[in-house]
Amino acid sequence: MFDTLSDRLTSALAGLRGKGRLSDADIDATAREIRIALLEADVALPVVRQFVAQIKERAKGSEVSGALNPAQQVIKIVNEELVGILGGATRRLELAKVPPTVIMLAGLQGSGKTTLAGKLALWLRSQGHTPLLVAADLQRPNAVTQLQIVGQQAGVQVYAPEPGNGVGDPVDVSRRGIAEARVRQYDIVVVDTAGRLGIDAEMMRQAVDIRDAVRPNEILFVIDAMIGQDAVSTSEAFRDGVGFSGVVLTKLDGDA
Q1: CA angle centred on 172, ends 108 and 120, rounded to 5°
Q2: What's the alpha-carbon Rg for the chain, to the nearest Å?
């Protein structure tokens, strides 16, 4: 996915190379090519507009006009803006001063929350932690079984007192999972929650109830990288409805 976008942006910037001086027309033409490249990559139009406007503003400013290599400076600006729009800097997980640290996973059905729970637990285990997975997705068929399988593969324990498939109270399971972690001295709890095929009030209400019950240190919004322009509206809905402290993009090995 990123390779394809990288190729498109490289092509858009190719016309600048070798130029000792850049005119406004050069910058406008390059900005137009960048805009097309991003739209072809299915980036949401409001994001594209903001991104391109920021590049044009900086490219027409003193940091480019006074540079020894203006073309290279524009490329540097594009790189910096891309890094900025993706979050800017790497941030470590926020760990609780008094264990257990609670990490809640939220997102639409099919975004990869359960698989991420297993991968995250495996990584945490490799860092010397003792994670516990909590099966609070009691809605999706076989979600509890899937979490038990990925937990077994990762070599971590899974708290699953309810069979799922529509049976059980996810808020109660989440709360009891935290209590279980305290008793058995697990230092990190990863709560796998239910999603839906689309945004709806019931899903948001359940996620908010779980959030309020377990008071997570981190809420990770899990989103399918191939969702395209819907990523913006979906992210805004979760931000406003539940809130989140971090975003995880899954399925980045896809070709969308």
Answers
A1: 50
A2: 22
pLDDT tens per residue, range 231-245:
888 888 899 989 999
Domain containing residue 67: 2-85
Cα(192)–Cα(118) distance, rounded to whole angstroms? Answer: 10
Distance (Å, rounded) from C-alpha 152 to C-alpha 121? Answer: 11
Please name the amino acid found at residue 196.
R
Q: pLDDT, tens digit, for every residue of 149-194?
A: 999 999 999 999 999 988 999 999 999 999 999 999 999 999 999 9
- Burial (CB count within 10 angstroms: exposed 0-12, middle 13-18, buried 19+), residue 195: buried
CB 85 within 8 A of CB 47: yes
Q: Which residue has the tokens 């377990």?
A: 214
Where helices occur in the chain by DSSP H, the ranges are: 2-13, 24-40, 45-59, 62-65, 70-85, 113-126, 143-154, 170-184, 201-214, 230-241
**Model pTM score:** 0.82
By the 8 A CB rule, do 133 and 117 touch?
Answer: yes
User: Is residue 15 domain-shared with residue 119, that is, in the same domain?
Assistant: no
Q: Quick one: 116 and 238 in the same domain?
A: yes
Most confidently predicted of 46-50, 63-67, 90-94, 250-254: 46-50
Residue 46 sits in the same domain as residue 170:
no
Give the torsion sign (CA, 24, 30, 36, 38).
Answer: negative
Q: What are the two backbone dihedrals, phi and then psi, of residue 101, each rounded to the nearest 5 degrees?
A: -75, 135
Contacts for 78-83: CB closer than 8 Å, 24+ residues apart? 78/9, 78/13, 78/34, 81/51, 81/54, 81/55
